[in-house]
Amino acid sequence: MNRAIIYKALYVLVHWAFTIFEQVSGTLDYVTNKIVGFCHEFLFISERNSYLPKRITRIRKIPAHLTVILGSEQPSYKDLANLVIWCLATRINFISFYDHKGLLKKNEDELQYEISKRKLKEDHVIWHKGSESTYKNGFIGRKVHVKIVSEEDGKDSVVNLTKKLSQTKNINFNIEDISEQLQKQYEFPEPDLGFVCGKTFSLYNYPPWQIRVTEFLSIGSHRDITFSFFLNMLDQYGKCEQRWGK
Q1: Model confidence, pTM
Q2: Of 63, 69, 119, 210, which is most buried with the most CB atoms under 10 A?
Q3: Phi/psi of residue 216, nearest 5 degrees
Q4: Main EC class of this protein (predicted)?
């Protein structure tokens, strides 16, 4: 009887201690993430002039087009805006965001606002919406092209293009014709590098004709991503040996 009471008391004590540990650990993680997020937002400004040029020279290759697949994550506009600014800093000319749910495309203004708060006056962000873009000649400074892609830009665009081609006088169109037209609609070059967000590594019906040579890396989450982590991912991409299907 005494042993049963002792075991029960020990169980309650261990359970109580573990519950406190979980709460303290969760609180510390939250505070740490907030501090890191706050610091990298402001420290990046000082890094840009001194640390960044030296750091970039150590990266073997810079992708021309970075695409970010949000997966099941809800978009964090400030973190996505940071990725755009970092593309400007590292001379990545194109960045696209793929949100198969379409939420990011509906709230594109929020992303534009967050980017406008972070970019320098001489930086130029060129937004692409379908066949339209905000490109203007005569500006001085860095530039990056930005495009938001959703699932409707994948299978639906193939179906619509096939219907359009079938209604033309040239009925002898082939796969190459469809591929060429899809490339024109997409505007951007094929992504060199893709970040896949979330715990599940899935492309979520990303337009398949665009990712034939893309190197995909899992980043876990785009939320609270730091500039150092971003550079490390570029390092990892630079070390990848792309065989181009060979």
Answers
A1: 0.71
A2: 69
A3: -100, 135
A4: transferase
> CA 147 to CA 206: how far, in whole Å?
14
CA pair distance 63, 215, nearest whole angstrom: 10
Strands (DSSP E) along the chain, which ranges? 65-69, 94-98, 124-129, 132-133, 143-149, 193-197, 215-220
Rounded Cα gap, residues 85 and 151, in angstroms? 25
In b/e form, how buried is each residue of 199-214, taking b as 16+ CB within 10 angstroms? eeeebbebbebbbeeb
What strands, in cross-sheet order, belong to the sheet with 193-197? 132-133, 124-129, 143-149, 94-98, 65-69, 193-197, 215-220
Question: Strand, helix or coil at 18?
Answer: helix
Tokens of 222: 């785009």
pLDDT along the chain (246 residues), means of 10: 71 79 71 55 53 74 94 93 92 94 92 92 85 57 90 65 63 61 69 92 83 89 90 90 58
> Which residues fall within 8 angstroms of residue 92, CB to CB, at 6 or more apart?
62, 63, 64, 65, 66, 86, 144
| Structural contact between residues 233 and 217, judged by C-beta atoms closer than 8 angstroms | yes
